[in-house]
């Protein structure tokens, strides 16, 4: 959602947004801004042409550890939790997209009772308020931590996201919610979004409909159902891979190959590795973002080094432009490297050492990426 966001903003503004297969709210949600335009100047005449392009933005893992929760409490000065100081520097980038999607890896409390970090998370509801304030419209919620607090945790998370106006996909409170396909209506394009995880850390799913598990055949079926429901674009979020490993695993490669047998899937967005992984453009013009690293996370359990790769992340903006008929083509994929600063835990535009690391990981498949760093 395009917003005007001040770098020092702390006010919370909540409105509406959407998701797929395990979500809530109405089946479509209308964006809040006008379409992308191209400005052409000839002599003394300037003409603005609507090219119908839309910009979808994706970020890495939101993993609010004990340390991040403590930092948010410090920023709040003893009155709850304040995540805005951690997010304010990148807020203008998030808020400028036509549709911005986060990956909420953990449960979020609806009352800030029983908060916890690793290994079974329960984040303050102020995190969701900050996410909405900086411009997120939706979140994928299927991860290995989705059922950390069983069905109660899913219910609290989705209720909180509903309250602040963030749509969601990947987990559900009821069979009916799981069954309901949702299509985002963004600047005239209808965008389906699916979210799945490789597993649940050995915990049982509280119900078959509570969280989506990776099953390529089911994903292909779900993507086809979205197309039949009118989706122009289908995005699949996958929580998979090996932690701290920048090279996609054999499992990731296999899942991607099987999912992309479906002609209905336009884009795969990956999470879970906690480090940045490659981006690949397939021969048919579809794209795979294997792993976007950590967006807001502090995993010192991995290392005492204040500059480790698990503080790297990347904001990816994917531009879809109308093609023939009702189809859309991906015409640009841009990126902004980010880094979770130590000890402030502020998400910043990546410093040089982090940028080099991120660009090396992103470019391993030779995809034609555009650096959008402001």
Describe the structure using short key phrases.
single chain, 374 residues, alpha/beta, Purple Acid Phosphatase, chain A, domain 2, nine-stranded mixed sheet, seven-stranded mixed sheet, 22% helix
Overview of the structural elements:
- The protein is of the alpha/beta class.
- The protein has one domain: Purple Acid Phosphatase, chain A, domain 2 (4-Layer Sandwich), CATH 3.60.21.10.
- The chain contains 9 helices and 18 strands.
- It has helices at 66-75, 84-87, 91-95, 126-133, 150-164, 175-179, 216-228, 250-259, 352-362, and strands spanning 28-30, 37-42, 45-50, 54-63, 99-104, 138-140, 167-169, 183-186, 189-197, 233-239, 267-271, 279-281, 287-289, 294-297, 312-322, 328-340, 347-349, 370-371.
- Strand 16 and strand 17 (347-349) form a beta hairpin.
- Helix 7 runs parallel beside helix 8 (250-259).
- 52% of the residues are buried.
- Residues 4-49 have low confidence and may be disordered.
């Amino acid at each position: 959602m395009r917003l005007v966001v001040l770098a020092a903003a702390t006010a919370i503004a909540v409105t509406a947004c959407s998701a797929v297969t395990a979500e809530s709210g109405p089946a479509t949600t209308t964006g809040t801004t006008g379409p992308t335009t191209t400005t052409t100047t000839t002599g003394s005449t300037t003409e603005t042409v609507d090219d119908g392009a839309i910009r979808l933005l994706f970020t890495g893992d939101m993993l609010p550890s004990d340390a991040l929760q403590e930092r948010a409490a410090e920023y709040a000065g003893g009155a709850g939790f304040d995540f805005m100081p951690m997010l304010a520097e990148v807020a203008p980038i998030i808020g400028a997209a036509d549709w911005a999607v986060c990956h909420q890896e953990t449960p979020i409390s609806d009352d800030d009772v029983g908060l916890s970090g690793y290994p079974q998370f329960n984040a303050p509801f102020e995190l969701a308020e900050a996410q909405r304030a900086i411009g997120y419209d939706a979140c994928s919620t299927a991860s290995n931590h989705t059922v950390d607090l069983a069905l109660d945790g899913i219910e609290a998370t989705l209720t909180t996201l509903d309250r602040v106006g963030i749509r969601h996909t990947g987990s559900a409170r009821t069979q009916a919610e799981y069954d309901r396909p949702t299509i985002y209506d963004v600047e005239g394009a209808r965008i389906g979004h699916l979210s799945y995880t490789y597993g649940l850390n050995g915990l049982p799913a509280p119900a078959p409909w509570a969280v989506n598990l990776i099953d390529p055949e089911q994903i292909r079926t779900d993507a086809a159902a979205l197309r039949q429901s009118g989706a122009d674009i289908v995005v699949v979020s996958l929580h998979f891979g090996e932690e701290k490993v920048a090279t996609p695993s054999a499992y990731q490669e296999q899942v991607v190959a099987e999912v992309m047998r479906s002609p209905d899937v336009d884009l795969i967005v990956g999470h879970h590795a906690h480090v940045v992984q490659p981006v690949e453009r397939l021969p048919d013009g579809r794209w795979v973002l294997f792993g976007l690293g950590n967006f807001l996370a502090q995993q010192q359990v991995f290392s005492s080094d204040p500059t480790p790769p698990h503080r790297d992340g990347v904001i990816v903006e994917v531009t879809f432009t109308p093609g023939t008929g009702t189809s859309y083509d991906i015409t640009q994929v841009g990126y902004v490297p980010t880094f979770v600063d130590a000890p402030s835990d502020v998400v910043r535009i990546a410093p040089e050492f982090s940028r080099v690391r991120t660009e090396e990981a992103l470019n391993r498949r030779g995809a034609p990426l555009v650096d959008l760093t402001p």
